[in-house]
Queue: 2 jobs
Job 1
Amino acid sequence: MQESVLVYRNSRYLKLAVAAVVVAIVAYVVDSPVGEPNGGTWLGYTLGTIGALLILWLMWFGIRKRRYGPGNVQLEDWLSAHIYLGLALIIVATLHTGFQFGVNVHTLAYTLMMLVILSGVFGLYAYVRYPREMTENRRGASLDEMMQQIADLDRECSDVAMGLSDEINGIVHSSRENTRLGGGLLRQLSGRDPDCATTAALKRVQELATEIGRAEDADAPPDGRMQLRRLIVRLNRKVELLDRARKDIRFQALMRVWLLFHIPISFALLAALLAHVVSVFFYW
Amino acid sequence: MKLLVSYLTRKRSGDVAHRDVEVDDDVIQIGRGTDCQIYLHDPRIAILQAEIHERAGGMYLQDAESRDNLVVNGEVTAHAILKPGDKIELGPFELVVVDAPEGHDLAITVELVHPLGDEMEQLRARSGISLSDIAVGPRSLSWVLALVVFGLFLAWPVANYFTRSAAVTTGEAPKMVDQRQDRVWPLAADLAWDSGEISAPHKFIGDNCQVCHQTAFEMVTDEACSACHAGVEHHADAARFQFATLAEATCQSCHKEHGGSAAIIRSDQAFCADCHTGLEQAAPDAKLLNVADFGSDHPQFRPAIVVDSKTGKRQRMALDEANWPVERSNLKFPHKAHLKSDGLLVRGQTERRVLACADCHRPERGGVGMMAIEMERDCASCHELRFQANSPRVVPHADPAGVMIMLREFYAEMALRGGVEEADAAEVVRRRPGTELSEEDRLAALGWAEARAAQAAEYVFGKPVCGTCHTVSRAEQDGGPVWTVEPVVVVDRWMPKGQFDHESHKAVVCTDCHAAPTSEVSSDVLLPPIENCQQCHGGEQASARVPSSCIMCHLFHQPFLGPMHTPMAAAAADSG
């Protein structure tokens, strides 16, 4: 579906964006202003106005996308136009600067704009690539279902461990109480949990099983070894499920983390843009 | 002992269900193990948690590991004597000792007061499975960032402007050096608004934006510039030429700050060529020729040549090969004779002296032009104005009246002293010094002196002395001949509209541009035509020549044209 956004309506918005960019480049090449090209020449003012209006229109998408009633223009149109005109803004804004950069609020606005666009490019990439991988990873089960299965396994492991030693019981209990999915932002994005209590539990139980096997303990009932094996099987299944669930969480996080940049930085951009425009005419 | 265990289950309705179990054993084991008499089915309980022994003192409860893991009636302990009413907390279980019914030694109720809870719920509670679970979301971040940027880069500079502008604009015009930043804030709040590098000469006020940007939302006024750059001159005679572009121009029209040192002065030739390639349309009576590019479209140099030495009238004449201008300066000076390669022999010297350009032509301080030739400094070492054979005495230069006076004084002194050794001199002056003179003698001596002075004057003002270089005219008058030396009118600025700097051409040999060694008369105009300069200098886009745009040699603001008309001045004039 996301691919279709890129070619929506026969790539109409791509063509529009390319046309706008070509016009801007030609105008820039042809123009010969007083002094060097910069934001304050006539072409600079024109490109700057176009850029500012573009930015406001691009941000309006955030409002439009939450209006769920029927509209004159489809949301797909809005999104396709948002992507291509957002990309065209790179050229328009850069030509507006006349390639003059410095340590000031003007270049700050430009930098924030580029960060917004770059984060948007990443978002587009995420939306094109990750849904398929996510579906493959899920294998038909939703995250909730996976969590339910994990919870069931927890119960089963508990039951099995009841009849085993205190140490194993403690390990299994700890793996039940301390295993978590995801966590903070970075942990969600990594798709792993290096401190996973279940993995530690499985490792320890396997060690104990090996020790017991090696000890050839006549006291240890064969029943106990069977229980241990059943426990290990369940713990393995739990680890597998945890991996899949964490991967799912990772995909979801990737598909949303870019918004954590895209939206706040665009508001910072709005403030910087306001400062940029006001300052240019304040000290005209 | 005989023990009655009641497992209690509290229902949601409030009712309590119980399951009773009878136990008969010496030691009552409490734990998770299936062989425990009090069986606590929960992973939080150890296989063997505690035991109850019957002792002499009573029922003795003891922790399986003899550690303080028991909580009896709220107190932590390792063992306790049980009596009815005791509450024992064992993990999530609460055991209460109740009155033992008939036939039993001990009765205990067991209740699970902290059930394990729903695994799924707990798992979800522990986990952070979506970005909504993390502390910071897009909305709060957006507010924070936007407010920080707004505060730092808009609110603060604007506030700074209003607190400082009072200090800058009231009071007398500050001295230039006082316009440096007078920091009230820790650092200038509006420095973030700086839109580009300030040109080098303005850097000392560059931190103080309000020196130029005096009023908010108003373009920089000409007054801001003329506070220091007062009386910048016009480009064209405002009375004769009324160009709209010049009349409406402000300083800012051409001079852009915040573009570094390169942008503050326009140097692109297109700026000039815009008007100077079609001057006849804008100003039909202008005498200037059109020009577009030094290398390919620049008229021949037209230096100002003196055409009438009496009035000193100058005329601009092109250095045209076919029609080379001639200067009428009233000076006779052949460069060729002076620059002889084997040198000159001067009276009184034994060695021949080879002259070079620098022997007479000295650069001005700064090296732009050449100092005017001064006879006393540059010529007199060879051309002594002597008039008497064995006397080193010279007459003053450029002072014909003074010459006469000196000659008379010279010979009068000789006559007065006596002892003149010339054989054909009058007797009276040849007398022995110290001889008394009668009145008649004195007059005779004076007559001799006068005669000799007149003779010397003829000599001096004639070809041998003054006439060597000057045009001298002799007029007979009652008191005797009067000589007039025609004034020498030599141009000091050949090309007044162009700025040629000798200093920057120090590496060039004089004779590469000035054809002096072959010049035999001083009416030769020894300037190079433009082709000579074009050997090295090209237009603005030249790559194989020195790129030279108009302002390399010409000024926009012409000196002596009066202050440039500005809209402000005009408005003031209109209203005043």
Job 2
Amino acid sequence: MRALRVALAALLAARAAAAQQTPPADTARAGVAAPAAAAPAPDTAAATRAPAGATGTEPGWQLLVGHSYSSARALTQPATFTLEQERGQPLYSVFDAAALLRGALADRAWLEMGLRARGGSARPPGERAYGAMVRAFGELDPVLVAAGYEYLADGHFLVQQPAATFEVTALGGAPGLGTWVSPALHLRWRPWLGVSWGKGVRPYLRAAGEWVGGRVEAGVETTGWLVDGTAVGFVQGDFSVRLVGGLFATASGEAGRAPPTFEAEGRFGVGLGLRLGPT
Amino acid sequence: MTRKDERGHRWTDVGVQRAVIRIVRRLSPGFARRVITLRTRLHTDLGWDDWYVLRVVKPIRRTLHESLEDRVVLALKTVGDLVNYVWNRMEDA
């Protein structure tokens, strides 16, 4: 008999220390005044600024930690470590996390290197997944392009999927694309069109959307691949209510077929979460 | 106080502020003009995601003749940060 799923979930998320959260070191080197000096009255603004030409030094590397490195949205989903229990069985653990290191390549290009893992004692080795990737971005307003190389493997390392990827997204231009629809409606979305070239050519389309309303946040990300002429999809989402500070009550789930195995899977968990850093 | 952009045009600090705020307002058409000030947070208040913030690069290059570094722009938090970054890239006149 299936059991009761008791979930006590602890969520780890640290979105980057340096540039995203507290960028004084990075931005100072890049010639940006500290946040406290970022919004002075117009007549005093200049007095707080660095000397002219105090720019040109590339910012340092930035570390991001989240649910997955697959997208910016996924990185704002907390990395999860969940304890689950079935009657008469010991506690199982499930974790899903990724880390990303971001650094500059040139004025209009940068590099990301990432690691991800989905595993824990509650997942059979065949359902676990590990990955690593390197990805270069180029901003060509009105679009952003990304070229990368990703390695994915299951827990047995029987299914291994190295693949080169190429992705493109529009920076903006449609209502809610990359920005809140309006001050009253905090809803935004972003599409990515890509192609993966490993064991065959697999085009895919990824779309992410998120909504924030006071203490409540919700997000969903769905990806559809064309695998050997067949369309397969995977969707993951989260719903969180801020309790106090960075503490959330969170429900998250996922369903569908995801690489590297593209076998059907699904998961749902409820628990408490902690998020550090900006959203 | 005045500084020069990459083409040698002179700008006052107030002029740079006004130009940058005007650009940010154009990129946030759903927001009232008075909502956007130096203290406005790009990600939290305007909801700009990591990639949308890069949309300021081209209009600033066209209007203020300054080439911004994407990696720095990605790390900016407020409109004031952006004003400061542009101003600090300029040279003393």
